[in-house]
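Fill in residues.
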């Protein structure tokens, strides 16, 4: 039995799965997300910005200032079709710092700015 055609089919299937899958880019910063009862899933191609409990901001895994964040969001918007930024705050981040980061993302050109949470037990 000739198995060469079977190997060809397996390579084609492998290529199909690699091309059709999307990879989620994580920021690489550990934060304890706040909980919310109402939440929805967002596109995996969105830019992710983390805010730690001490107020430090990380974009694409690198620590940045609020001014640098605005520039990074502008660069992201210029190269990506989707203009969504997901802010991943620690549960202990002050509301003022969160608004600062969200404002910088909007000024950078983001159309949608979302806050990432974990689903609260007993939520929908």
């Amino acid at each position: 039995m000739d198995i060469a055609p079977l190997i060809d089919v397996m390579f084609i299937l492998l290529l199909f799965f690699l091309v059709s899958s999307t990879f989620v880019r994580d920021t690489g910063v550990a934060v304890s997300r706040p909980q919310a009862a109402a939440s929805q899933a967002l596109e995996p191609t969105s830019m992710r910005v983390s805010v730690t409990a001490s107020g430090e901001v990380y974009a694409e895994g690198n620590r940045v200032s609020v001014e640098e964040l605005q520039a990074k969001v502008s660069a992201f918007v210029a190269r990506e079709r989707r203009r969504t930024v997901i802010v991943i705050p620690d549960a202990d981040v002050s509301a003022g710092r969160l608004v600062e980061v969200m404002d910088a993302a909007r000024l950078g050109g983001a159309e949608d700015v979302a806050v990432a949470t974990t689903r609260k037990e007993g939520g929908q």
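The longest helix spans residues 4-20.
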